[in-house]
Amino acid sequence: ERKYVLVFALAGSIDLLLSLLILLPLVQNFEERITVEGIESGPGFSVVGKIVGRGGNYLRYISDLSRSKVFLKGKGSNFQEDQDCPLHLHIMCRSSEDMAKAKELCTALLDTVRKQYEDWKFVCSFLDSFGVVHVFPPVVVAPSRVPTIAGLDHI
């Protein structure tokens, strides 16, 4: 649904009043949520930390690249008002093109974190099979298997 603002303009001299009707679309806001599924925090693995990045670098980078605002909200996040919702990325922007770019980058980030989570679970189960007590299991990933997000690997 598009909304319009009516603007009247006066043209010509004082004797001649022309009203010019111009329909200007109002600025549209796009919002979308991407739920964080299949990833859980555990000892040595912080989902919030992995998604946000050190000092918020990952979400800030996505926001800058896609000209949007991206927040991590829901259970376990720092947003108190949405603690009853599942953990999700909340994207806000002004155009559908920006939304598409933000969704693409957020999905890539979540895929990377999901892969890191699977690797972490594998290491934990491996240590469990030998009866090794692990509080903060080391996650050792071969250099060729280091998960990256396009554009985020330099951070």
Number of helices: 3
Whole-Å distance between the termini?
A: 40 Å
Q: Compute the CA-based radius of gyration.
A: 24 Å
Most strands sheet: 3 strands, antiparallel
- SS elements, strand count: 5
Helix/strand-derived class? alpha+beta
Topology:
Blueprint (H helix, E strand, L loop, with lengths): L3 E8 L6 E8 L4 E6 L11 H6 L4 H10 L1 E6 L14 E6 L2 H34 L26
Antiparallel strand pairs: 1-2, 3-5, 4-5
Helix pairs in contact: 2-3
Give an account of the 3D structure.
- It is a single chain.
- This protein is an alpha+beta fold and 155 residues long.
- It is built from three helices and five strands.
- The strands form two sheets. The protein has a three-stranded antiparallel beta sheet. Strands 1-2 form a two-stranded antiparallel sheet.
- α2 packs antiparallel against α3.
- The longest helix is centred in the last third of the chain and has 34 residues.
- The protein is elongated.
- The two termini are 40 Å apart.
Which descriptors would you attach to this protein?
single chain; 155 residues; alpha+beta; elongated; disordered N terminus
Give a brief rundown of this model.
With 155 residues, this protein is an alpha+beta fold. The chain has helices at 47-52, 57-66, 96-129; strands at 4-11, 18-25, 30-35, 68-73, 88-93.
